[in-house]
Specification:
The chain has about 220 residues and is mainly alpha-helical. The protein has 3 domains: about 50 residues, no CATH class; about 80 residues, no CATH class; about 60 residues, no CATH class. About 65% of the residues lie in helices and about 5% in strands. It has a two-stranded antiparallel sheet with strand order 1-2. Strand 1 and strand 2 form a beta hairpin. Helix 3 crosses helix 4. The chain is elongated, with a radius of gyration of 31 Å. The N and C termini lie far apart (about 75 Å). The mean pLDDT is about 80.
Length: about 220
């Protein structure tokens, strides 16, 4: 059994172990463990959450492929022309003898790959700065344990249930669903359907203080 296989197998086992512990909430309270784990494997977790939302565009892929082919062909043609026009002297930079006017295709491919790598690195740098700024200014905590997330999920589900019950109660009282919104004579929006549900979500005092002639 080769050493490389052992390293790969060990990495997979460690990743699965950390994944199980994170999902179970065992490591959520320890930022000393969570930070390196999320830095190393966070992109995998993110990819798993958004992979089903990614839509493949055949037109976009074809456009990108044609642009890449055109860039490579143009660069290769320019390189061959430049090699024919240069003085017949020994090139110390390219390590080529005098009179060699060849421009190999692998050189064009290497330059295109380098340009693409620089482009991707620039995008990644911009994204890192954006996310770092967002994290530094966000009022939300950086790390959250499973219990708090479950509590918020339960609260959100309960709020949606209360809104649904309020809609049913409004319909039973008025025999119609609330209007989507009200407008003044000039067509300016005043109040939405949420305002009319206030008495049915235990907010009658707030509803009584609303001036429906004003926004």
């Amino acid at each position: 059994m080769s050493r490389r296989f052992l390293w790969i197998a060990g990495g997979i086992v460690l990743f699965l172990a950390f994944d199980v512990l994170l999902c179970g909430g065992a490591l959520s309270g320890s930022w000393l463990v969570a930070v390196p784990v999320y830095l190393a494997f966070g992109w995998i977790f993110y990819l798993g959450r958004v992979a089903h939302e990614v839509q493949f565009s055949a037109a976009g892929f074809a456009t990108a492929a044609l642009a890449l082919i055109a860039l490579t062909a143009g660069l290769h043609g320019f390189g061959r022309w430049w090699m024919r026009q240069r003085p017949a002297t020994h090139n110390e930079v390219l390590h080529e003898p005098a009179g060699d006017s060849r421009w190999p295709l692998r050189r064009s491919l290497a330059i295109v790959a380098l340009v693409m790598l620089m482009f991707v690195a620039g995008l990644c740098g911009t994204a890192i700065v954006h996310q770092t700024t967002w994290l530094a200014t966000s009022p939300e905590p950086w790390f959250d344990n499973g219990a708090m997330g479950a509590a918020r999920f339960t609260q959100s589900k309960n709020n949606l249930k209360q809104i649904g019950l309020a809609l049913h109660n409004y319909h039973d009282t008025v025999d119609a669903l609330p209007r989507g919104g009200t407008y003044d004579e000039a067509g300016r929006p005043l109040h939405s359907w949420q305002t009319f549900l206030l008495p049915y979500v235990e907010e009658q005092p707030l509803y009584d203080n609303i001036d429906f002639a004003r926004a």
